[in-house]
Batch of 2 targets.
Target 1
Amino acid sequence: MQYIICNFAAPDRAEMNFISNGDIRRAASMLAAAENVAIICHVHPDGDAMGSSLGLARYLTALGKRCGICLPSPAPRTLDFIFREGDCTTIDASLHKEQADGCILGADLAVCLDLPCIRRADGLEEAFRQARCPKLLIDHHLNPAREDFDLVFSVQDISSTCELLYHILQALPSCGVECSDGKAFPEPATDCLEALMTGMTTDSNNFANSTYPSTFEMASGCLSRGVDRDSIISHLQQEYREARFRLMGYFLSEKMRISDYGVAYAVLSAGELERFGTEEGETEGFVNIPLGIGAVKMSIFLREEGSVFRVSIRSKKGVSASRLAGESFNGGGHEQAAGGRLDIGPEIPDAAAAERYILEVTDRYFGK
Ligand code: 5GP
Ligand code: MN
């Protein structure tokens, strides 16, 4: 008997979409045996990375396990609302590397969330590789590095890691493996579901993309068990600072260009970001806006940060953002939502050079 997430899909899709009962039982055995769990997500954590990390931590904490969430870099302040009193320790490894390494090396289970390979956890890679404990991956990106893990849940036709984790947690109570002496795993509680619903909402852009029947199934399950969606939406969409919208106006009216091939692009320099007093997370969503223009097929947004330009790419169906990210921006991601980075150096010294580079690589990408 398989636990099927998408039993409505065409046979070839269903094939890709199931989680086997065997894998659920293996995950259950790993979770049951663990006392100290290190949870690791990707650098520049977004709603999905934070939501899945906190959701898992809340589920395991309720089972009496000790958890530590190791973030390779800080979470944006726009996600502060997601934390609750009583949540487990969250360690920002960019400030407290020794503590994060200690958490990973002292764990008897390491769970990586929302990353396909441990390189995406930046400075935490070394401790992760040194750790001798069992390792579990739950992710929705292409090409997971299976060799680095004892068990991998990888599904691409799904909204988010939060959704995948939801379906796994849902399957635990009836999987036949005991959580502790004679007891089955419990259903996830509302605080866990709230975190998962938050990450699913951000990764699906509030049900605008990557939304499957299983996504609505999850939403329905969360709402019927007390998750306050209105509150999540209000935290996510109605609590920004004014500075974000001033910058957004500047980005759209002064910075965005559209190439002959329908590529909208904009580069914000460190000076411009500073002028508007921009904080981490406050340009979230900018890259999606130009896709609202009929003639635009792809949107590329760069912002200068230290010695790199961080790159965000979004595309309409039929155009691969992840291929361009891989080929020209040292990155990757999903078919329609990808990212990467450009090093600032002799070849690309400033924002103007980055704009020229974008034009050059996208003209080549579409012109062929
Ligand atoms: P965002 O534009 O929201 O920062 O990132 C969109 C998606 O692109 C992420 O969910 C992630 O899958 C991918 N991504 C972003 N930055 C990088 C990167 O530096 N390397 C890789 N491999 N993927 C990235
Ligand atoms: Mn994600």
Target 2
Amino acid sequence: MAEGLEGVVAASTVLSDVDGAAGRLVIRGFELGQLAGRTRFAEAAHLLLDGFLDDLPDLDGLERMLGEARVEAFAHVELPHSMPPGLNPVETVRALLARIPEGDDVRTAMRLLAGVSVFTAAVARRRQHQDLVPPDPAADHAADVLRMVRGTTATLEEAAALDTYLVTVCDHGLNASTFAARVTASTLAGLTSAVLTGLSTLKGPLHGGAPGPVIEMLDAIGGASNARRWIESALDRGDRLMGFGHRIYRVRDPRADALKRALKGLSPDAGRLALAEAVEQAALQILRERKPDRSLQTNVEFYTALLLEALGFDASEFTCVFAMGRTLGWLAHAREQVANGRLIRPASNYVGPEPRIAA
Ligand code: ACO
């Protein structure tokens, strides 16, 4: 039995396909390269949700609803003491999302999609000790998110880079958080519960929690000449290198290149690209030397960290930004599960003691 369920097919889906041997990601009939950098997030939302929500409007209508939902979400966080105290960014966003009434319709879906973005922006403003910035319902979603986070209007290149990120991570087969969301949806619990399940699963460092530690690694390495020594001693301690390795991909994760292109689109030396490339090369070489039987390659989280840092997000918020994109996949999978699937209820292998026989 595979304890991590590797190789087990647990759902049929029209939403996305990950070919780990070829390094290929197809999202609803499009190669990642046909979507990333060419599609706005609202367009991706329309593509993924099409056919799964009875009341789905056309693209203009959906963007209008998403804008209105941002305004509605903002009303939840602008009041004093509205933010739950003592929680980290993902926990804060999760607590705020839990207040969204359960539902299975397009309005609930837009509330959840907008909620993750608006609540993340509120977390970012509070961290900066700045007043919250209200959304503009008529603005493009990615541009509005950046304005709410930073307080200034984003350039077209910056908004395009965030769009590329959100579209690139919006869906990825039956990853851990999407599987978890489908299990919850299969009980007919509703979209809010499915998204809360997805977010709770995403936050682990083996899944969506990795990009923050990538920045810590780059900070600790400091300069390219330290990379090899730092990586060797991390592996000697038994640590894993964040941003490397993947359950499915045996070649380079195609999303890493999509994000690297977006980073270069901001400016040729955006972020800490030169340092990152040196660290990446050193890491790949050392992983090849130490694990010759296992193909450990760069995954999406490595360039996620650099791109989101260049866009002005703090490392503590990266997982929330990941969730801004992936919520779309959770919603579409939840609806697909309800439409086509059954209650997910696998079996377990009992390895405990036999019942005692009474003396
Ligand atoms: N650094 C060092 N060694 C690694 C790494 C890594 N990043 N990834 C895997 N390995 C090693 C493991 O230690 C293991 O070695 P062993 O057989 O000697 O014990 C071997 O490679 C296989 O590892 P598994 O855990 O079986 O691989 P799995 O498919 O379960 O892991 C995972 C995938 C969890 C992503 C892993 O590669 C990892 O921990 N990476 C670092 C965290 C990370 O970047 N996560 C983000 C993934 S992308 C996403 O979820 C959006």
